[in-house]
Amino acid sequence: MDALFSVIMLMYQLFTGIGTGEETASVNKLLASLITPASVQQPSEGQGSGGSPGQSGNAGLKDPQPDAPKIKGIYLTAHSAGGSRLETLLKLLDDTALNSMVIDVKDDLGYITYPTTNPELLKYGAPKKYIRDINALMTKLKEHEVYPIARVVVFKDTVLARSHPNLSFRHKDGTVWQNGKKDSFVNPYMKEVWDYNIAVAKESVKLGFKEIQFDYVRFPEGFENKADSLVFDKTKESRVDAVAGFVKYAKEQLEPLGVRVSVDIFGYAASVPAAEGIGQDFVKISKYVDVISPMVYPSHYSTGWFGVKDPDKDPYATIKGSMIDTHKKLDPIGSFKPIIRPWIQDFTASWLGKGRYVKYGKAEVEAQIKALKDTGVDEYLLWNAGNKYTPGVIY
Predict the structure, then answer these.
(1) Which of 211, 256, 343, 381 could link 260 by a cystine bridge, Cβ 3.0 to 4.6 Å?
(2) Is 291 exposed, middle or buried (0-12, 13-18, 19+ CB in 10 A)?
(3) pLDDT band, very low/low/confident/very high, at 5 (cuts 50, 70, 90)
(4) pTM surpassing 0.85?
(5) Sign of CA pseudo-dihedral 8, 316, 147, 338
(6) Where would I find the DUF4015 domain in this sequence (predicted)?
(7) Is residue 319's pLDDT more than 80?
(8) If DSSP codes are grouped into helix, strand and coil, which group holds residue 368?
């Protein structure tokens, strides 16, 4: 089952425009061979929808932002946040019911995206000037009543791995391991890595961000096939417990600051057992966060999921099925059930091949939103790697 998550990660990279058509075809074939809907018990319609789906503020989970609006947001790269495109995206929020921006403060390579003099950050991090004046940006967001969320990419960190190989995974010759895309990861067992990322989060809070969204909270894809050949420090804990331990620790460190903590996780994670290889357990992670954001892009589900031949072409059924599974997975944790705020698709998955995808526009985005509403979920985030969002959508 861990191989499935390796494939999903490659798909995630592909839709950002990195992968080739040949790679995409291979991914789709492998997905179909690894898992089919019949191999996962599907709940009937309405299962897992008891209580208050997607809501916090109960006895077990105290929302540090109780006055926050229902979040409907978009993703911004640091280049967009620090460049001319910001004005266009602010106007989108001004003119619609969208009210939040998820902005990279530590990006997919590991760069801190703005100048900083914080010694805790400079010890391990490398600042860039993508956002030249972070304080001016925060002021502008406040003027436009934007709910600001800081995206912090955690264990995928090529910058830190190269500057501090002891915090990463090494080959026996001492060189730092990297994946096929030349990306490296740092070691989730290392508390120094935990503290560094939490320091980034704490500075983000001081800057005015109301929520910290941790991404890449996991080991590298397919790690179970690499671990024995790599050199790295570890404890007696399982990979799942190491990753969940970070999330729990981060929550404890950030809770006194009155900031929400959220984590991005594969949408498939709600429908399959824990991914021991990469150390992700949907339920264990969800217990320690205020918000869980499964990435439920219809394009990332293979033929037959939720009774749909081509999930990308039926966004309503796909999102509805994924949310039923999500509730079923999280309902057993009762009062610790976090806000469910999925990432949904606002991009066209042309890599799926002719006849397997549709061009995403107003109808497809609204279908996903309706599916969320029909399953008791009224918060969501829109993903488009280029930050170009469909006009005219009723949010």
Answers:
(1) 211
(2) buried
(3) very low
(4) yes
(5) negative
(6) 73-389
(7) yes
(8) helix
